[in-house]
Amino acid sequence: MLTIRPEQMSALQEGLLNEFEFRAASLIRANRPDLCDGLSSEELEEEVRRGGGIARSYGLRTEHDQLHFLMLMLEYGRGFDTRLDWVAEVLLDADLDPRSKTEELYYRAQKRGSPTVSLDGRRTK
Question: SS3 string of the chain?
Answer without folding.
Answer: CCCCCHHHHHHHHHHHHHHHHHHHHHHHHHHCHHHCCCCCHHHHHHHHHHHHHHHHHCCCCCHHHHHHHHHHHHHHCCCHHHHCHHHHHHHCCCCCCHHHHHHHHHHHHHHCCCCCECCCCCECC
